[in-house]
Amino acid sequence: MKTVLITGANKSIGFETARQLLQQGYYVYLGSRDLQKGQQAVSQLQAEGLTQVESIGIDVNDLNSIKAARNILGQKTAVLDVLINNAGISGGVTGPLEMDISEFRQVFDTNFFGVIDVTQAFIDLLKQSPEPRIVNVTSGLGSLTLQSDPSWIYYGITPAAYVPSKAALNAYTITLAHHLRETPFKVNAVDPGYTDTDFNHHSGPGTVPDAAARVVKAAIFGPDGPTGQFFSDDNAPETGISPW
Ligand code: NAP
């Protein structure tokens, strides 16, 4: 049975990703920074008959929490097949000249540095898998090409810290995929689309199941699947591959 760790999986896209991977037969380590919320999420899934799941405490802003999660997971399994770096925050919509630097740092800590810390902490377990997969949940807003295109539907939607944090995450995805290019790893960035969740006070038109399905697709790529790509059904309906 393949194993997957999903950060920020106690609700919304991360939770639904857990549900869909459980339905596909994966064993899910459901990451949550709040243990109680994580346990509630697990109970909900178990009540649906999806039992191959357990919660694991992991705050991506806290290296001690990440290391503790790695140790706990290492006692449960020698192999991690899939890592989904889903946890993310939006930060405010203040402009780039007005936003306090502490807010920039907070958003980068979660969306960028947190992903690096988690990836580095779990890479040894991922390397034990014959088909390891890393999915970085990004945003279409992190595309520098689209952000500079006045004809793009979301042109001008520029939350000051979020946009550069996801652009940096995209760049990390490229460098990581390149570093692992001669291995069985597939490392990709996935934009789940503008989705109806707490993240945007439920303003998004997309559904959580559709968003999670996009993430799941990259989590289950076979040996011939792509690596080092930026998938976005919203921004590239024909190819599914977004410009960086
Ligand atoms: P959400 O409803 O706000 O859920 C975010 C999840 O991340 C929650 O479980 C939250 O935990 C967790 N989280 C936040 N900070 C964390 C930390 N430091 N450590 C561990 N977990 C943390 O957001 P969502 O809409 O599901 O978004 C999921 C991902 O999709 C994010 O990376 C986001 O950038 C991306 N995305 C979303 C949209 C959209 O329209 N929704 C569009 C593009 C990309 P708590 O419950 O404890 O807060």
Verbal overview:
The structure is a single chain. The chain has 7 helices and 7 strands, in the order E-H-E-H-E-H-E-H-E-H-H-E-H-E. It is an alpha/beta fold and 244 residues long. The protein has a single domain, classed as Rossmann fold (3-Layer(aba) Sandwich). Strands 3-2-1-4-5-6-7 form a 7-stranded parallel β-sheet, with helices on both faces. Helix 1 (12-23) crosses helix 7, helix 3 (63-76) runs parallel beside helix 4 (101-126) and helix 4 packs parallel to helix 6. The longest helix has 26 residues, at 101-126. It starts with a strand and ends in a 12-residue tail after the last strand. It binds NADP nicotinamide-adenine-dinucleotide phosphate. Residues 7-8, 10-14, 33-34, 37, 59-61, 86-89, 110, 137, 139, 191-192, 194-195, 197-200, 204 line the site of NADP nicotinamide-adenine-dinucleotide phosphate.
Labels describing this entry:
alpha/beta; 244 residues; 7 helices; Rossmann fold; binds NADP nicotinamide-adenine-dinucleotide phosphate; 7 strands; seven-stranded parallel sheet
Layout: helices, strands, pairs:
Blueprint: E1 3-6, H1 12-23, E2 27-32, H2 35-47, E3 53-57, H3 63-76, E4 82-85, H4 101-126, E5 133-137, H5 144-147, H6 162-179, E6 186-191, H7 208-219, E7 230-232
Parallel strand pairs: 1-2, 1-4, 2-3, 4-5, 5-6, 6-7
